[in-house]
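Need residues for this backbone.
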């Protein structure tokens, strides 16, 4: 993977406002005076009072700019590590090798038809965990590097999807058909595939042909047409809804029309149509339903006839420029600060405190590898703290949204975004907005719905930052006179691995956060545009208006993660510490009274069914992974899960699209690890959720023993969202951030962050004449100056 960082500065960092120069000079004089007073009052243990710049320079302007490449190796290791994603050259080699295999009858995707054979998706095939551990923990040879390639085989009878393992890399010579034992379907029907560019091309032509018949209806109703609407403001555009039907194997997609303005998601016009595209004979595909003015028609001809007869006519005028503003990000409203001033910025005054070499990251006491997996994006492997592995894998599995409503759009929509390939939707991040400008930005390579590797520029970032709240602190004071006796605290500096995926309307920001006390935090944040429909009284029960003729409806966001926990090895146990109320009247110091108080019971879960947890607020509990080793106090060492974002799945089990996300029935589920049970979902779940290829429920149905076994936790986060007017133009991340944490639990003998250099202890000197400050050898010198933010190269394909 290649790495890009912020643009080099083109001008000086500070530009002073001359009109406020005298104010700034006065402020500087005051600051200098206060600083001299502090020098007299406060001394640091072993350090003089910190200077704002390096002792070798006299002013800020003499500092060198902070390096963009210190501690960073730009390319994958050669040869790649076992966790490295496929390189561009490997993808090309695999593609070219397969195209020469005459028995597969492959065509380049640009020349493919629905009834032909072509490459659909490609990614790394990870070796079995046991082989990886033997290699990275022992002295065994590195497992052979392989690719997993998904083929669309419309040429076969029945039409199907196939998965092939191609090896060895980087120069493949062999390929073998892969059949995952956990899959519930064999063969995998072609109808389970997402609509790709091969199919979309045919469907768009059907839409153009049928809408041309109804051009006078479109222009009479909306002021514009569709099939030849070029260069006209507010042209109609169509997008399809998933899943494509309510029965397994059905392929009947609803499309809804909107005006092609900026923020077009918020300009639905109330026209929805359905295409029937079952089978591989595209000449039999039709447009067989039209929903117009809240009325259902069974053909385009029936719709046109009704309109021509003056029945159900509707006019939705083209919004003017002012009316279109509500869907844009343009600033509007009262100016909160005049003149505008920059907000706080993040930079490393003495350089980076982490190292990156290819996919491997080292941050203080943390080590891990970053991997880009096509369907679900960025994940981390071999996560270690103080060189002890705490997790083999932490990965996002699925991001799903389930809608409710009346019209075809809102009542059909249920999205499973891993099928859309999150890695292919991870577009360029903006320095200073999406990530701090000092972050390291990485390119990735995607092979999905394309003939070759696609470079995703700056698609994820790594940065260290201050969370803005102490990791821990205490102000000790004398209760009698109120004077402080000491202060102890520590800044919560963390390392963040972030990627963002824009899956059509919604933007998701996914973070892996590493704290200095041995805690790993995973966070999913939702933003972007809500899915909107044209207002009607029936749908009003499901949402709120966000514009005069636009309604956004209720939906539930659900995220599933896989955490392969290894606490001091792979033989672990899972407990719930069940918190309950006890009533005691036998305490001698409470004679004559009853004391109601909390207590907890340790409950060892023996089997997978016992460990499939549906959270009940009346039965709170801790979720604890334990090893058979103990800390200094004889307590088993472990880690626990804390879930800060749960939502009940309100769709009943085994109804509608729910089987495709049966993992959402549980807030956390623990299973015995199996290499074949590598994911809770599949890239086929979106288009056949009724009879899914991967049914997570089967992972727990076999009810295997989980005592002293290699265990995996499947964690579900969720949030119900009833949109409101403030969701225009887009949903804010505030209030829409869901997290879970993996926390040490009796793993250490004390707080692991006590080893950090970021703590500070302040104690008063005798008579409170100054203070002694222990900052662990840190000084306040700035040895480099931050780079200037420049966004003019954003989106430049040549940069």
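Answer:
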């Amino acid at each position: 993977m290649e790495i890009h960082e912020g643009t080099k500065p083109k001008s000086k960092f500070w530009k002073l406002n001359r009109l406020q120069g005298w104010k700034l000079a006065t402020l500087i004089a005051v600051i200098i005076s206060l600083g001299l007073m502090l020098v007299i009052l406060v001394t640091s243990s072993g350090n003089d009072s910190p200077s704002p710049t390096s002792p070798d320079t006299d002013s800020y302007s003499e500092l060198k700019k902070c390096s963009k490449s210190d501690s960073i190796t730009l390319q994958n290791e050669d040869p790649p590590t076992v966790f490295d994603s496929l390189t561009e050259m490997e993808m090309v080699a695999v593609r070219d090798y397969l195209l020469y295999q005459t028995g597969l009858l492959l065509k380049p995707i640009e020349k493919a038809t629905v009834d032909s054979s072509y490459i659909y998706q490609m990614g790394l095939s990870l070796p079995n965990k046991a082989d990886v551990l033997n290699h990275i923990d022992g002295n065994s040879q590195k497992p052979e590097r392989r690719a997993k390639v998904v083929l669309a085989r419309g040429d076969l009878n029945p039409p199907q999807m196939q998965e092939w393992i191609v090896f060895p890399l980087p120069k493949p010579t062999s390929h073998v058909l892969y059949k995952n034992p956990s899959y519930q379907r064999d063969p995998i029907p072609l109808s389970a595939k997402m609509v790709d560019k091969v199919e979309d091309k045919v469907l768009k032509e059907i839409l153009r042909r049928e809408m041309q018949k109804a051009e006078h209806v479109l222009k009479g109703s909306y002021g514009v047409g569709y099939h030849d609407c070029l260069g006209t403001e507010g042209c109609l555009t169509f997008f399809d809804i998933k899943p494509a039907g309510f029965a397994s194997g059905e392929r009947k997609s609803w499309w809804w029309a909107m005006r092609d303005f900026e923020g077009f998601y918020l300009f639905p016009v109330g026209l929805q149509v359905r295409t029937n595209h079952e089978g591989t004979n595209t000449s039999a595909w039709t447009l067989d339903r039209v929903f117009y003015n809240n009325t259902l028609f069974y053909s385009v001809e029936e719709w046109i006839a009704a309109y021509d007869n003056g029945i159900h006519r509707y006019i939705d005028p083209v919004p003017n420029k002012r009316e279109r503003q509500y869907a844009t990000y343009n600033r509007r409203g009262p100016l909160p600060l005049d003149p505008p001033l920059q907000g706080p910025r993040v930079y490393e005054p003495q350089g980076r405190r982490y190292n990156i070499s290819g996919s491997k990251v080292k941050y203080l006491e943390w080590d891990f590898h970053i991997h880009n997996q096509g369907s679900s994006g960025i994940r981390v492997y071999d996560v270690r703290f103080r060189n002890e592995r705490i997790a083999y894998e932490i990965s996002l599995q699925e991001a799903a949204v389930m809608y409710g409503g009346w019209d075809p759009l809102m009542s059909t929509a249920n999205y499973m975004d891993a099928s859309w390939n999150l890695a292919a939707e991870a577009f360029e991040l903006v320095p200073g907005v999406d990530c701090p400008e000092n972050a390291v930005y990485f390119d990735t390579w995607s092979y999905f719905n394309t003939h070759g590797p696609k470079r995703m520029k700056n698609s994820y970032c790594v940065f260290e930052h201050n969370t803005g709240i102490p990791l821990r602190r205490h102000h000790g004071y004398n209760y009698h006179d109120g004077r402080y006796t000491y202060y102890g605290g520590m800044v919560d500096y963390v390392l963040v691995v972030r990627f963002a995926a824009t899956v059509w309307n919604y933007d998701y920001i996914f973070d892996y956060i590493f704290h200095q006390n041995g805690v790993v935090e995973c966070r999913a944040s939702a933003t972007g545009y809500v899915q909107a429909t044209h207002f009607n009284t029936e749908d009003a029960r499901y949402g709120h208006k966000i514009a005069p003729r636009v309604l956004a409806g209720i939906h539930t966001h659900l995220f599933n993660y896989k955490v392969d926990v290894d606490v001091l090895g792979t033989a672990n146990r899972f407990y719930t510490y069940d918190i309950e109320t006890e009533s005691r009247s036998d305490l001698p110091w409470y004679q004559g009274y009853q004391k109601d108080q909390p207590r907890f019971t340790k409950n060892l879960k023996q089997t997978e069914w016992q460990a499939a947890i549906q959270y009940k607020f009346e039965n709170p509990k801790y979720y604890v992974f334990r090893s058979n080793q103990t800390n200094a106090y004889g307590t088993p060492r472990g880690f626990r899960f804390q879930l800060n974002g749960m939502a009940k799945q309100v769709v009943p089990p085994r109804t509608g699209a729910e089987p495709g996300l049966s993992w959402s029935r549980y807030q956390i589920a623990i299973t015995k690890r199996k290499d074949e049970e590598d994911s809770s979902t599949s890239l086929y779940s979106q288009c056949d959720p009724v009879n899914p290829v991967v049914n997570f429920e089967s992972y727990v149905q076999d009810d295997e023993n989980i005592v002293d076994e290699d265990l995996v936790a499947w964690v579900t986060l969720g949030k119900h969202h009833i949109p409101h007017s403030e969701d225009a133009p887009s949903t804010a991340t505030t209030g829409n951030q869901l997290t879970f944490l993996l926390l040490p639990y009796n793993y250490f003998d004390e707080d692991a962050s006590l080893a950090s250099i970021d703590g500070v202890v302040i104690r008063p000197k005798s008579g409170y004449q100054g203070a002694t400050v222990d900052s662990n050898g840190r000084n306040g010198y700035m040895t480099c100056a931050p780079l200037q933010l420049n966004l003019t190269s954003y989106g430049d394909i040549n940069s």
